[in-house]
Amino acid sequence: MSFILVINCGSSSLKFSIIDPANGEAKIQGLAERLSSPEAKLKTKFSEGTSHETALPNAGHLEVLEEILHEMGSLKIVGVGHRVVHGGEAFKDSVRINEGVIQGIDDCRELAPLHNPANLIGIQAAMQKFSEVPHVAVFDTAFHQTMPPRAYLYAIPYGLYEQYKARRYGFHGTSHRFVAEEAAKLLQKPLEELHLITAHLGNGCSACAVREGHSFDTTMGLTPLEGLVMGTRSGDVDPNLHDFLARRLNSDLAGVTSILNRESGLLGISGLSNDMRTLVDAVGDGNARASLAVDVFCYRLAKSILGLSAALDRIDALIFTGGIGENSKPVRARTVANLRVLGASLDEALNEENGKSAQGRITNQDSGLLALVVPTNEELVIARETARFLTLTPVR
Questions:
Q1: Of 393, 386, 335, 320, nearest to 135 (Cα)?
Q2: Is 140 a residue of the active site?
Q3: Other CB atoms within 10 Å distance of the CB of residue 206
Q4: How confident is the model over 282-293, as pLDDT tens digits?
C-alpha cells in the first residue's frame, strides 16, 4: 500500500497527514508547534484512534520530519504534497517541484511574506529527508487563476498591474475546489453544469463564485486581508483608513496593517475572542459586543454572497464549509436570514444537525435558495494532486 505525505508548513509549525490516495483515509495526522523553541512538540493522531504528544525541545523542521519518519514505521511514502499559499500568475495549476519551481515560489514572497518563505522551509527540509520521491506544490491561489480580468483587476493605474502584478488573487482555492466537487456529488449533477457559491469560514474566511467548476470571483484579493470579516482580520475597509489611523496613532503603514491583520475582525469588535465558539457562548450570556461581532460577520458574509452572484447566472447552491461553516448553527442561521431577498428559508431542525440527515441540506424544500453544509478536506485535495503526478489513480 502506498501513501502520500501532505505538508503544510509555517515558520514555527508543521502540519502533516499521511493519506492513502486510493481511498482518502488519513493513516496518521499531526501538528508540530513552537519549533526552534524549548517548548517545541509534536502531536500525532493515528487512524485507529490512538494519539500521543512528543516533546522535541529546540527542534526545527528537519528534526520534526525525522520524528515523522519514525512515526511512519513501515508505511511507504511514494510522494510528498506541499501546500503553498501564493503562486502569483506563474502557477495556474499544481506542479512537480524542481529548482525552477522553488525559485518561482520565492519570487512570490513579496505577495505572501508571512507564508511563502515558511512554505519553502518545509519544501527544502522535506526534499532533504524524502529525497527519493517526487514532491508536488499545490497552490492556494491556482484555483482562482480562471477569474476574468473584470474580477481580478483593481481600478488602479494599469501599469502597476503590469509592473508589480498588483491584482486580486484569492486564497483557500483547494477548499473551494473540493467542496464544489463534493456538492456536485450530493446534487447528483455534473460540476460543469452547476453555478455555486462556496463559503470557507474559519479563522480565515473567503467566499467564491464557482461557475461550471471554475472560480469566477472570490472575496480575498492581493493578500488574505481583503474580503470577509475574519477571526483577527478586518476584511474590507476604506483604503484611506491606513492613512487616517497612521496619523492618529502616530504609526507607520506596517503598524496599521498589523492591527488590521492581528487585532481586528471578530476579536477587534468583540474585545473578547477571535473564536466564534467563544463568541456564540458569550452571546447566550448576554454579551452585547459578542453579539455585534457575530452580527457584523454574518451580515458582511451575506452581502458578499449577493455580490458574488453577479458572476453567476443563478445560484444552484450555497455551500458552508470550514470550522465555522460546518459547525456554527447560529452563524448559518443569521446568514441565511440576511439572504431573504433570494427567498432563502432555513430548516431549523436540519440546521441543528448540520444537515446530516438530508445530504447536507439546511434549507426548506421550498426555499428559494438551496444551502448545504459540506465538510472540507484540503489535505485530501493535495494528496490527490500529488497522486496525479505519480500516475496513481485516486478514488474521487
A1: 386
A2: yes
A3: 29
A4: 999 999 999 999
